[in-house]
Amino acid sequence: MIVFVLFAGTLGYLLGSLPFGYLVARAKGVNIFEVGSKNPGATNVRRVLGKGPGNLVFALDVLKGAIAASWGLLARTRVTVSFNLEEWGLASQGHIAGPTWYQLGIAGLVGALLGHSFSCFTRFHGGKGVATAAGGFFVVMPLPALLGGLVWAATFYATRYVSLASMFAAVSLPLSAWALGCSGWLIGIAGLVAVFVIIRHRENCRRLLNGTENRFVNKSKNATTA
Q1: Average pLDDT over the chain, rounded to an integer
Q2: Cα–Cα distance between 215 and 160 in angstroms, integer?
Q3: Are residues 126 and 146 in the same domain?
Q4: What is the pLDDT of residue 104?
Q5: What CA dihedral angle connects 181, 71, 40 and 167, to 10 degrees?
Q6: How far is 137 from 143, CA to CA, in rounded Å?
């Protein structure tokens, strides 16, 4: 069981480490780690390069989270490894019941989230993981994730703060999972991810409290105004 979980988590980490924000910006001649908030996430890419590149990075980050959480779908109910005990000097045959697809999916999701935030391809620098986590949770528990998306949209359009919307959406996820009767360990994982997202936004929290956090404004709108 541990081998399967570690394998799914490792694949998820490598997939999550793909620095799409950096690659898309680099294709435009920009080092995203040196401009704007210096974050390779979709929000900074969109602020610096505009709607098209930003939306592309967002879609790719969501997709890698969804794919990483989908490993377990190859064995929808339960993975079972059969082996011959005679090979180990024993007299009978047996099997090892592996983890459920939910557990493999969560392992892949967590791996992708860590990979996105601490990418081995960019010296362990990365984004804040919101889009990647959202893609993964839409696979393993779609209804709470959908409610989280609605919370994000409502908060963002009311305040124009991406950071605040992301944190509210993250906090809503374990609450929605609990209200909808999800298993305790899924609620726990969602809670841990929410804490992780808030920690990754700690500088944004300080700016929000100080009243210095930037509201999101499209680059194209700024250009038009200028």
Answers
A1: 85
A2: 5
A3: no
A4: 87
A5: 0
A6: 9
